[in-house]
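Objective 1.3, modelling of assemblies. Example input:
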Amino acid sequence: MLCEICKKRPVAIAFTQVINNKKTQLAVCMKCAEEKGITNPLAGLPEVFGKIVANILGEELMLGASEISKKASGRCCPKCNTSLNKFEKTGLLGCDECYHFFEKELAMLLRRIHGSNKHIGSRPRPRRIISSAKDLVKLRAELAQAISKEKFERAAELRDLLRDAEREANGKNSDRGRKA
Amino acid sequence: MPSDRPLEFSKTTAKNLNALTKRLPHWLGNNAPHANIIISTRVRLARNLAGYKFPRTAESGELYEVIREVYSAIAPSRQLGDSIFLDMLRLAKLERKFLVERRLISPPFAAAENPAMLVVGENEYLSVMVNEEDHLRVQSIQPGLNVEEAWQQIAQLDDELGESLDYAFTDQFGYLTACPTNTGTGMRVSLFVHLPALAILEEIEKVMKKLTPAEITVRGFYGEGTEVVGNIFQISNQLTLGRTDDNIVKRMEEVGQKLVSLEDDARERLLEAQPVDLHDKVYRAAGILKYARTLSSLELLNLLSYLRLGSDLGIFKNIDRSFLNELMVTLQPAHIQKAYREMDDDRQRDVQRAHVVREKIAELF
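Predicted structure (tokens):
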């Protein structure tokens, strides 16, 4: 299959969008994708692509990395037996272990879909780190410092801690889930 | 095998479903913020249990284990209060369709042939599908534009369930879901919006493009892959990873506010530019509703859209919004069929629908 833009090079990435029940698909080569800025879903052509579903095999071609070879698509998750080939067809992973087994591929795919592959949202309650009010003040100060020194990774971690603590505090003060 | 034991709530499934058909969901309510344009707000969370295969891969025995685990976590829940439990395998096609119309389950869940459970909380604000694409799909519905309230309610339930259920979660990827488009927060906020003026002015596409389409998706009446009817659109966030829950809540609240102001503006322009045509549309809709002898559900939704617009613009003074919402929900095909048993073909249902509408509307004009 040839790229729909240049009609010369082979397809490396396919996109699908569904708006108002109309499905639009676009398959392009690596070069055109780069030229149009489609490789980063948040830059480039957001007005054209509402939903971006990346094709994992396309991603491999793009990287040209030897460690993720075409053979990888036949590898199966040891727990549920789902292969990348199957995942590509159904769009569904088989179990939580798939996330571990296909970690590299998924890290790329998730970045492609969401523009990020690092979770910064809330955590299940038993995994939250609860801090005292005093610690919170300290954390906030450290966060401000991390931001001013442009230590963004540390800042993100601190924000996570603060958010957990705040959600915990909200939960405790509420009655049947409603904010007091 | 322990999984072959019958589920303890199976026997009461039929009774519970009937109870559901005899009452109305509370999210049809009247006095919600921006309820003239935003009919309802829904937040849903996708969650899976660690150690079990995801529902589409798992075998029957494993799916029963998941149901039992979730059942024992939910049964004592404070958040879900007087909830009812439905064994999906005990429900016929019609009853499943009823639940789709009621916005309690998704069309794929309605087609399920594997062990699955639906939990419906008091007044239908909260519900949980078990063994849909993920082990849990928890949803929270509020009337009007109210992302914050819907989020608060679901977050409390999620916290409560997270105490007794071991959710599949990693620090790197967050909540692990069957489809990578839900990974991370597993959170989808959907606004159910009525945009008749923008539709009449043919500005929907322009407006949707403006709303940064990389993170927003527009769907039809019953969700993914369904048609737009009655000028009602479902607007949802697309991205779930690398964003905090609060960000998504705030962002969708903003999107809602923006849509409200764009539709308000369109209504003003429409009223100014085409007052006669607009009144004509609205009064014709009222006329058909008042006198028609057959009404398909599609036609009803389209006419109700104009009646709703007329009511919002003050052309009709005495129409309750909850009344319009009630007609919208209770006159869908499976709802009619559940309420009037003999109605098993479209024609009979269309006649019955027109009859009910005439009776109800007679009180208004």
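The first helix of chain A runs from residue 30 to 35.
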